[in-house]
Specification:
By secondary structure, this protein is of the alpha/beta class. It has a single domain, classed as Rossmann fold. It has nine helices and seven strands, in the order E-H-E-H-E-H-E-H-E-H-E-H-H-H-E-H. The protein has a seven-stranded parallel sheet, sandwiched between helices. Strand 4, helix 4 and strand 5 form a beta-alpha-beta unit. The radius of gyration is 18 Å and the shape is globular. Belongs to the short-chain dehydrogenases/reductases (SDR) family. This is SDR family oxidoreductase.
Length: 269
């Protein structure tokens, strides 16, 4: 048994794929990995947004980052993303299934199209992108340094929230259970599957839900933080730190679990 504790939390040199990586939590994760020496591949539907984020992060942190725009809510987009990654990379060390959507509507008015869109992106997209990228994950996987899949769920999948809506909270509960299934199924081939359930972070999605109109700068995030047991909203370091723990040697004996990153909301509810 090795007693070497150097580089315990290192992700340097790893190839990391992040869906929904052009803004919000996806961009926070991309920044954290890039700043710590990983190669980062981001994806989202809008090509312009992807390229703007790539330039912004590269200017700030340097390193190697590029984008492959794609829609992981559709099988054609999932296949396109997987094919394009396979053309450029010989392995994937970390896949972060972060892309997600929400739909706000009353029970009486909730449309089938909204339900299907949320489930397609938030649940189906995770399963099938992981399936398509499994060959590249297997090429990275070893007993000493497993490949990692991190599914971004939400605390709305752990408790009921008035902002969640029927489809979003249900989809995130499905992500948590899917993570358990995937973790059990793939640990034996040295692919560890875990989840993170974020609480409130200063993102476009939360901004729209609390009435800030999608703005993330110049709005009163402290008013949201005041409702949190920790007295604040999350920071990029909070979410990136947990993801990098799960991606590093420090997290190499964990699989099938979803960890809240929420300042204590779930444990207090």
């Amino acid at each position: 048994m090795s007693n070497d504790f150097s580089n315990l939390f290192s992700v340097k040199g790893k190839t990391v794929v992040i869906t929904g990586g052009s803004r919000g939590i996806g961009e926070m994760l991309a920044a954290g990995y890039l700043a710590n020496g990983a190669k980062v591949i981001i994806s989202s539907r809008k090509a312009d947004a992807c390229e703007e984020t790539v330039k912004r992060l590269k200017d700030q942190y340097g390193g190697e980052i590029y984008a492959i725009p794609s829609d992981v809510g559709q099988m054609v987009g999932i296949q396109h993303l997987a094919d394009e990654i396979a053309k450029r990379e010989d392995k994937v060390d970390v896949l972060i299934n972060n892309a997600g959507v929400a739909w706000g509507a009353k029970f009486e008015d909730f449309p089938e199209s909204g339900w299907d869109k949320v489930m397609d992106v938030n649940v189906k997209g995770i399963f099938f992108l992981t399936q398509k990228l499994a060959p590249l994950l297997r090429k990275s996987a070893s007993a000493e340094d497993p490949a990692r899949v991190i599914n971004i769920a939400s605390i709305d999948g752990m408790h009921t929230s008035p902002m969640s809506g029927y489809a979003y909270g249900t989809s995130k509960a499905a992500v948590i259970h899917l993570t358990r299934f995937m973790g059990a199924a793939h640990a034996g081939e040295h692919i560890l599957v875990n989840g993170i359930a974020p609480g409130p972070f200063p993102t476009w999605m939360l901004s729209t839900g609390v009435g800030y109109g999608g703005e993330t700068e110049g709005v009163d995030w402290q008013a949201i933080g005041d409702r949190n047991p920790s007295g604040r909203v999350g920071t990029p370091q909070d979410i990136a730190g947990l993801a990098m723990f799960l991606s590093s040697r420090a997290g190499a004996y964990i699989s099938g679990h979803t960890i809240p990153c929420d300042g204590g909301i779930v444990s207090s509810s």
